[in-house]
């Protein structure tokens, strides 16, 4: 049995983990959830939850993973043997199954859009025609299933190659390129006619329109965007050497995540108001607005192709982490199993994701509690399982690791003082679980 794999560099870990966090959560999901949940008020709550709840929990998951050096399920087994706490790891694995089953559908859409952009089928259309084209593309079962399968296969190929040669190498290329292109597109979007209306919608909070759903969705987005509550970060940090600063890495990732969400909003919402669309358009938003924005740009077709290449990259970096947490629970330290397990798990996820893929076509009329398979999977994972998993983790860490052990792990590779540690400990032990309980209770209507 070979030794546990590790990231080859601090930057490699940050890029890979940022890729996990940034991905489609920030670029695709943030704009449409913000658009349906109050714009500026949602963004304000999202930032607050990221800093006060997400960041402390992210550091906590990092500590768990590096402290044990094991996958998610094995981590809870080691720290709480012969107890039911291992269910926390299983919740993470199951949630990643569910997320990747519908996430791969969007990844497939991005591949289809890349193909249509390359072949010139996304140029010269009106905004309404872009909306119609989107509907035509995602309702056609054969191409969408084929694209979803291709997306899963690409994910499997990278994860099967391991940490350094697969995930880290790909992330080092994808993430810087993605940042640069997002900045370029945001600058262009801000010159559109309706840019100021879009900026006001995103950055000026109207708290009068905040509902319990807005708060729950903002919390869910903070967890989804940082991949929290599913022990992905526990698994990724198990490959981190003791010389790396966990707080610095966590802050870097949180800042990058908020920045990319902001850039995505500044790209989308000026276009929404310029072209007379509704912010509440939903999941299709980015696929309708972006081609219309590029239509207004010099060399717009080339930029559109470049964007969807990087959009695919962003989707893949997040998919890597979700497949990795599942694969790691089966591979453990025997890396010879990695290729076989990666293919078996990945193909199973594809099969489970078929109903979500057909939710906008052949199975559009099949509902679960009023939601399509796609929307039901998204809601269950993002707004129920991830916050619940985060709640369990926030309870587990101070319960099973002493303050001394936590402080010592946090200090490894960093110069964190006792005051910073106390603030982090209080936020994790008290603020995070209490906030999650209150938001959950309000969302399900007990106080109504």
CATH superfamily: Amino acid/polyamine transporter I
Major sheet summary line: none
Question: What low-confidence regions span 5 or more consecutive residues with pLDDT below 50?
Answer: none
Helix content: over 70%
Span from first to last CA? 56 Å
What is the CATH T-level topology?
A: Amino acid/polyamine transporter I
Number of strands: 0
CATH architect. name: Up-down Bundle
Oligomer: single chain
The helix/strand series, from N terminus to C terminus, equals: HHHHHHHHHHHHHHHHH
- Structural class of the secondary elements? mainly alpha
- Mean pLDDT score: 82
**C-alpha geometry:** globular
Describe the structure.
There is one protein chain. This protein has 448 residues and is an all-alpha fold. Helices cover 76% and strands 0% of the residues. The protein is built from 17 helices and no strands. It starts with 9 loop residues before the first helix and ends in a 5-residue tail after the last helix.
Task: Offer a quick outline of the entry.
This protein has 448 residues and is an all-alpha fold.
Give the helix/strand layout:
Layout: H1 10-36, H2 40-68, H3 72-79, H4 86-118, H5 127-139, H6 141-160, H7 163-189, H8 195-203, H9 212-225, H10 232-237, H11 246-274, H12 285-295, H13 300-331, H14 338-357, H15 373-400, H16 403-411, H17 418-443
């Amino acid at each position: 049995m070979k030794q546990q794999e590790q990231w080859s560099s601090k930057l490699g870990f940050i890029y890979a983990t940022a890729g996990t966090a940034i991905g489609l959560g920030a670029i695709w999901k943030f704009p449409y959830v913000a658009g349906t949940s109050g714009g500026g008020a949602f963004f304000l709550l999202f930032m607050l939850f990221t800093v006060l709840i997400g960041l402390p929990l992210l550091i906590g998951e990092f500590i768990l993973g590096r402290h044990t050096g094991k996958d998610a399920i094995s981590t809870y087994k080691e720290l709480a043997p012969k107890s039911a706490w291992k269910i926390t790891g299983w919740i993470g694995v199951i949630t990643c199954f569910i997320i990747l089953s519908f996430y791969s559908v969007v990844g497939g859409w991005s591949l289809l859009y890349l193909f249509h952009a390359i072949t010139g089928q996304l140029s010269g259309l009106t905004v309404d025609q872009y909306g119609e084209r989107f509907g035509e593309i995602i309702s056609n079962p054969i191409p969408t299933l084929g694209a979803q399968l291709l997306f899963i296969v690409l994910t499997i190929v990278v994860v099967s190659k391991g940490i350094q040669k697969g995930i880290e190498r790909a992330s080092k290329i994808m993430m810087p390129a993605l940042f640069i292109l997002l900045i370029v597109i945001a600058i262009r979007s801000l010159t559109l006619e309706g840019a100021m209306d879009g900026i006001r919608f995103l950055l000026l909070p109207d708290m009068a329109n905040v509902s319990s759903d807005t708060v729950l969705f903002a919390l869910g987005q903070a967890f989804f965007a940082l991949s929290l509550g599913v022990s992905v970060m526990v698994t990724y940090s198990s490959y981190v050497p003791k010389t790396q600063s966990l707080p610095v890495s966590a802050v870097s990732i949180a800042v990058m995540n908020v920045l990319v969400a902001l850039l995505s909003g500044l790209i989308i919402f000026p276009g929404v108001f310029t072209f007379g669309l509704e912010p509440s358009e939903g999941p299709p938003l980015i696929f309708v607005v972006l081609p219309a924005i590029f239509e207004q740009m010099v060399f717009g077709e080339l930029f559109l192709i470049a964007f969807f290449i990087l959009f695919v990259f962003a989707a893949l970096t997040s998919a890597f982490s979700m497949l990795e947490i599942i694969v790691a629970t089966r591979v453990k330290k025997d890396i010879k199993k990695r290729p076989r397990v990666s293919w078996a798990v990945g193909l199973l996820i594809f099969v489970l994701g078929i109903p979500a893929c057909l939710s906008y076509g052949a199975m559009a009329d099949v509902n679960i509690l009023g939601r399509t398979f796609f929307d039901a999977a998204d809601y269950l994972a993002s707004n129920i399982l991830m916050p619940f998993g985060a709640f369990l983790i926030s309870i587990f860490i101070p319960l099973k690791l002493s303050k001394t052990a936590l402080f010592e792990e946090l200090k490894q590779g960093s110069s964190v003082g006792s005051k910073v540690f106390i603030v982090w400990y209080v936020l994790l032990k008290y603020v995070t679980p209490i906030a999650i309980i209150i938001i959950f209770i309000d969302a399900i209507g007990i106080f109504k």
